[in-house]
Write a structure and sequence with these properties.
9-stranded parallel β-sheet, alpha/beta, globular, 9 helices
């Protein structure tokens, strides 16, 4: 959705399915992961039971969000197969899948394109200095590995979401460098839907001993990001991590136009409950902003989807009287 002068803010009616919390990375700020082998994987039957309950809800997007299994692990093939099957199940039940499961191989991305209307991966920060601190025990957080994902997504014509994690030990110059890298790849492939600007928000599980990102800085970061990024990339902020209403409105005035997936639980930041749709409307409407639902694929990317996926998206566009879906 290109930026314009309208007073529209979007969100995705979503639900998050987690195939597994186990992850071979140990990022010191993480409040999501569990040790490999310490938690069970979600079964297809359990997922089907959850999705059946959602059929009567206004849920469009199913976010498949997973911890990472090492690329050379003997469990990798089964892990990827579970993710694929969950996407296929969600699609068969009328939902639109979006997968974020860490770095994938080119072939894995190519296969998931068949059952996802969009995909995502946070760049977080491209500075290698974090490999000596918060990412010391996180092999898949190599900047070149994550940047490669964005390039492959462009080559495969996968509508993509990426973003920055702010306040994990980087500098402001690192923000601009990471945003420039996203901009450069987008100008080559025109495939980035959204860039998330996510403030670090301390949780109970993390070992990273640092305060949360300074909220006073976020509108300024958004304004600068809006200058760096091409106008057809939407800036997204998570409203549950923007606790003050005035701060949230300041972020929107600065150029953020999307609030991401709104679901019962933020799996990445479980200490910060999602702000629900009606509450958001009560914040935005008095300030002259209209809150509008969207699907996990923006209309300009429909042509990249298979006929089967286009049909699924078209169904949502018909039953939801909102042009931005």
């Amino acid at each position: 959705m290109p930026i314009d002068n309208s007073r529209v803010v979007t969100y995705s009616p979503a639900y998050t399915i987690v195939p597994t919390y186990e992850c071979f990375n140990r990022c010191s700020y993480c409040n999501f992961r569990s040790e490999p082998g310490k938690s069970s994987w979600m079964s297809i039957s359990d997922a089907e039971s959850i999705l059946k309950l959602l059929e009567s809800e206004k849920v469009c997007e199913i976010l498949i969000l997973s911890g990472e299994v090492h690329p050379h692990s003997p469990k990798r093939q089964a892990w990827f197969g579970r993710i694929y099957d969950l996407c296929e199940l969600a699609l068969s039940m009328g939902f639109l899948p979006h997968t974020n499961a860490g770095p994938l191989s080119f072939e894995e991305m190519q296969n998931l394109k068949r059952v996802n209307v969009s995909m995502g991966l946070m760049l977080e920060q491209l500075t290698p200095t974090l490999l000596n601190t918060v990412h010391r025990h996180a092999p898949s957080k190599l900047p070149e590995v994550r940047l490669q994902q964005l390039q492959w997504a462009g080559e495969l014509q996968i509508p993509f979401t990426t973003g920055l994690l702010l306040g994990i030990g980087e500098t402001s110059d690192d923000w601009w460098e990471t945003l420039e890298a996203i901009s450069n790849l987008h100008q080559r492939y025109h495939h980035i839907q959204e860039v998330i600007l996510q403030p670090h928000s301390p949780g109970y599980q993390q070992t990273f001993d640092a305060p949360g990102f300074n909220p006073d800085e976020l509108p300024e970061v958004i304004a600068k990001a809006r200058e760096i990024l091409p106008p057809d990339i939407t800036i997204q902020i998570p409203p549950n991590l923007v606790k003050d209403n005035c701060w949230l409105l300041a972020c929107i005035e600065a150029g953020a136009r999307d609030l991401g997936g709104i679901s019962p639980k933020d799996e990445v930041n479980p200490d910060y409950p999602h702000v629900q749709e009606q509450v958001l409307r009560e914040i935005l409407q008095p300030a002259g902003w209209e809150l509008v639902p969207r699907s996990p694929v923006y209309p300009q990317f429909d042509r990249w989807l298979s006929k089967k996926l286009q049909k699924a998206v078209k169904r949502w566009r018909k039953i939801t009287p909102v042009s931005l879906l």
